[in-house]
Amino acid sequence: MHRSRIAVVLLDHPAESYEAAAQFWAAAHGSPRGEKRPSDDSPYESLRDLPGGVELALQRTGPGSSPRVHLDIETDDVGAEIARLVALGAAVAEQRDGYAILTDPGGLVFCVVPVQTGADFEPHATTWP
Amino acid sequence: MHRSRIAVVLLDHPAESYEAAAQFWAAAHGSPRGEKRPSDDSPYESLRDLPGGVELALQRTGPGSSPRVHLDIETDDVGAEIARLVALGAAVAEQRDGYAILTDPGGLVFCVVPVQTGADFEPHATTWP
To answer: DSSP character for B66?
Structure first.
């Protein structure tokens, strides 16, 4: 038995348009940017909590990559959640350290990650047998 | 003065992979599909309400289009919200009847639409001068 839910909506932009896009989305949502910006260690920047504690974040992706939006599904058991989703038709594109990049049956990219949202996880997650 | 907020996270799939993707995401979220499927009149299918009444939905897009995720920003004044976002750096890609398709400074597609979420709009929207 494990639990999961959609945790983060990520706006992915390549390095060359990242700053302009981050400035835009921060202003669009009236959320001043924090001090934490994408680095070589972590390409993520948190933007705003949506209602229910779903996080809106930015990711600086590789030069030349296409801008996109992707979803992070958070779970208290990454292995079990990946197995569940693969049985439903997803494919693992890349196993990373502690999380994985998957694609849905149409090739859409999403991630399965450990719990990110702390106290917001438990009340909003779904339990799977 | 007008108000806006992120209302819908849409998973867009072309006709050829739409059914497989829709089956997958419904099962992935444990949300049985409803009777309303994409039609020639409306290419949308509602999937699930995320916490705070942000809707997760599917869109059947044109044959050969790439799968993607896009955000809908809902507002009580579509014209004013578009003007605000364009002043921040967005561009209007296409003005439709009652809503518009925009791109952010990195070319990422999103939409500005009238209020979709009924009673969930007011408590979660931001007011702009």
So the answer is: P
Q: What is the pTM of this model?
A: 0.93
Q: What is the pLDDT of residues A57-99, one digit of tens each?
A: 999 999 999 999 999 999 999 999 999 999 999 999 999 999 9
B54: tokens are 């942000």
Rounded Cα distance between B37 and B59, Å, is: 10
Asked if B50's CB is within 8 angstroms of A54's CB, the reply is: yes
pLDDT, tens only, B52-77: 888 999 999 999 999 999 999 999 99
Residue carrying structure tokens 């705070």: B52
DSSP-derived 3-state class of residue B84: helix
**ipTM for this model:** 0.92
pLDDT in tens, B23-45: 999 999 998 898 899 999 999 99
Nearest Cβ partner for B85 among A21, A28, A85: A28
Contacts (Cβ under 8 Å, ≥6 apart) of B8: B54, B55, B56, B57, B71, B72, B74, B113, B116, B117
Any A CB within 8 A of B11 CB: yes
What are the chain A neighbours of B28 within 8 Å (beta carbons)? 73, 85, 88, 90
Q: Which of residues 93-112 of B touch A (CB under 8 A)?
A: 104-108
Query: Could A21 and B85 be called an inter-chain contact, meaning their C-beta atoms sit closer than 8 Å?
Result: no
Amino acid identity at A15: A
- Smallest CA–CA distance, residue A78 to chain B, in Å, is 14
Within A1-129, residue ranges assigned H as helices are: 15-28, 78-87, 121-124
Strands A91-95 and A100-103: antiparallel
How big is the A-B interface in CB pairs under 8 Å? Answer: 119
